[in-house]
Specification:
By secondary structure, this protein is an alpha+beta fold. It folds into two domains: 335 residues, no CATH class; 64 residues, Nucleic acid-binding proteins (OB fold (Dihydrolipoamide Acetyltransferase, E2P), Beta Barrel). 36% of the residues lie in helices and 24% in strands. The chain has twelve helices and 16 strands. β13 and β14 form a beta hairpin. α6 crosses α7. The radius of gyration is 23 Å and the shape is globular.
């Protein structure tokens, strides 16, 4: 489901206001750019192992140039060996230098339809540190062994020199482009998810797409290639988390289980939407049965995500097992250091632990400070995403005031009912009494104001 495309003038002005409202930086200070240039000019050198003979490839959105990950796979008896090369940002950026200070102020790369606000200058993020297929690149290579049950183990972590053979894109890659064992790797990970009770199912989300000078909103489920690629990152992040936890250090991504009250509400939502959920079936098993392309299922999936209260970062604490409910495991972020500040530090800790070296004091101190920095950056990123969607919705619907739309109620709370239009990729709220999730309603567009990023409906039936 998608909207018709709309022109760019109103969107461009609205995006400029969003950048100003959230005080997003326009580029980098000269000292940060100079530091990036100096780092980019350095020869990788050091005690790196030469792995340029291995057939690494990357798999990303077609337009991406900040490439964090490259991979190759091989069989070893019944096991699969993943060599996952991660951009060695920690080699280019040193604690306390201008690049480091700027990254701590940003936290993450922010994405908008008219361009991203990068964590690092493009000399690094889209140049010397990116694993592009135009020459050798320094990387940290995680060697992850996946057994027949889909349990990953970290065999080694090494600083290496790698060369990507190809930059592949999700929407054009073919099976012949990928390692023959990649589907088996993904299938093992999926079986392991089910065995441990994980609910790693991603609902389609509203997404603003740019098509030349025009924009549209669409619901875009993940492609099969994205799912397989996500399995590689998941295996690495699980293996890294286990190694760091055993070493009593690290930074983890955690998420709470929905409590009993939330699960009762979710069961009510499923019943109202006519989606069967038998009494003995757990939440994880129920979620795995949902089909993201079905609008009612997708609405339930989004409700499940909200019910857990969202994911957050925590540092290692003695006698506390950091737990991510959706993963049903201890989990860390280590595979996107060009885009997330936290990952650079986790990669450095994994290098130390794999080399039987202690994590230095500065790195340990960073794990205490990073949760607050990352939480703030994530919150800003979420608000920007919502502001962009609100803007494009208002532009798409402007001029259609008075039109009636069919909609489905997806959630009800003290702020009213959340509705999803049936024929347009728009989600909104409306003041309605005596409705339940799953009810079909008809609503009339009362106002669409791009300047205020406001869309307002009222119920007509």
């Amino acid at each position: 489901m998608r909207t018709d495309s709309v022109g760019s003038d109103d969107i461009a002005r609205g995006l400029a206001r969003i950048r100003q409202e959230f005080a997003l930086p326009d580029g980098f200070a000269p000292e940060v750019i100079d530091a990036a240039g100096r780092s980019a000019a350095l020869h990788p050198g050091g005690d790196r192992i030469d792995r340029t003979d291995l057939p690494f490839i990357t798999l990303d959105p077609a337009t991406a140039t900040d490439l964090d990950q490259a991979f190759c796979l091989e069989q070893s008896g019944d096991d699969l060996i993943l060599r996952y090369a991660i951009a060695d940002v920690g080699w280019f950026v040193r604690p306390g230098d201008p690049l480091d200070r700027e990254a701590w102020s940003r936290g993450t790369t922010m994405y908008l339809p008219d361009g991203k606000v990068s964590l690092y200058p493009t000399d690094l993020s889209e140049g010397a540190a990116s694993l592009l297929p135009d020459g050798p690149r320094p990387a940290v290579v995680f060697v992850v062994r996946l057994d027949s049950a889909g349990v990953p183990r970290l065999d080694a972590v090494e600083r290496a020199l790698v060369r990507s053979r190809a930059k592949l894109a999700y929407d054009t890659v073919t099976d012949d482009d990928l390692p023959p064992s990649m589907p088996d790797f993904a299938a093992r990970m999926a079986a392991a998810d089910e065995a441990r009770g994980a609910a790693r199912v991603e609902p389609p989300e509203q997404e603003v797409e740019r098509d030349g000078e025009a924009y549209r909103i669409a619901y875009r489920p993940r492609l099969a290639a994205e799912e397989m690629n996500a399995a590689l990152s998941l295996a690495t992040n699980l293996a890294v988390a286990a190694a760091l936890f055993e070493a009593r250090t690290g930074l983890y991504r955690v998420m709470d289980e929905p409590d009993d009250r939330a699960i009762r509400r979710l069961r009510h939502t499923a019943r109202a939407m006519g989606v069967p959920w038998a009494g003995p079936v757990s939440l994880a098993d129920f979620e795995r049965s949902l089909i993201s392309s079905d609008p009612r299922h997708a609405a339930i999936m989004l409700a499940i995500r909200r019910a857990g209260g969202g994911a957050r970062y925590v540092g290692y604490e003695p006698d506390v097992v950091p737990w991510h409910a959706a993963m049903a495991a201890t989990y860390a972020h280590a595979t996107a250091p060009l885009r997330r500040l936290a990952d650079r530090h986790v990669v450095l800790a994994a290098l130390a632990v794999a080399g039987a070296r202690p994590v230095d004091a500065d790195l340990a101190a960073a794990f205490a400070d990073l949760p607050e920095v990352m939480q703030r950056a994530d919150a800003i990123g979420n608000r920007i995403d919502r502001a962009v969607i609100d803007l494009v919705e208002a532009v798409v619907l402007r001029g259609q005031e008075g039109r009636t739309f069919a909609a489905v109620v997806t959630d009800v709370d003290d702020r009213g009912a959340r509705i999803q239009l049936c024929d347009v990729a728009v989600v909104s709220r409306v003041s309605i009494d005596r409705v339940e999730p799953g009810d079909e309603v008809r609503v009339k567009l009362v106002e669409a104001n791009p300047a205020e990023r406001l869309v307002r409906f009222e119920r007509v039936a």
